What we know:
CATH architecture: Sandwich
Distance between the termini: 30 Å
Strand content: 35-45%
Helix content: under 10%
Structural class: mainly beta
CATH class: Mainly Beta
CATH topology: Immunoglobulin-like
Low-confidence stretches: 1-6, 11-20, 114-137
Strand order of the largest sheet: 4-3-6-7-8
Radius of gyration: 15 Å
CATH superfamily: Immunoglobulins
Amino acid sequence: MAALLTLATLVTPTRIAHAQDGAVTLVWTAPGDDSVLGTATAYDLRYSPIPITASNFSSASRVSPEPVPLAAGRTQTASVRGLVPGSYYYFALRTVDDAGNWSALSNVVRLIGAGQPAGMPGAHSRHDLGRPEGDPG
Length: 137
C-alpha cells in the first residue's frame, strides 16, 4: 500500500526580517512520512515573484539549502535570504516520503519585506495566507 502524505501548510511567519535584510522566515508544522506519523524524506520549498500553482511550481526558485524534515507534528522553519526588499514573493512547499510519493502543493503564502526600502517611504510588512490549491475554503 502506498504511503499517505499529509499536506504541509505554511503558516503566518513568526518573523519577517527588515526589508534591508532581504530575508523572511517561514514556519509550518512538519507532516509525517505516513500521514501524521514518522518523518518525511525531503522538502521542496520554492518562491517566486508570481503566484505559485501546481503547473508552475517547478519553475519557481528553489530555497537553498532546503530544510531537513523534522518528525511529524514538530514546528519547522526556514529562512529565505537574498530577496529584494519591498518586493512581493510567493512561497509554496511539497513533501516527499521514503517511497518517492510527493504531496500536493501546500497553501501559497504571499509576503513582502518589512521596513522602508529605498524610494518607498511608508512601506509596511504584510502577509497573506492562501489555502491549499483546490481547497474551496
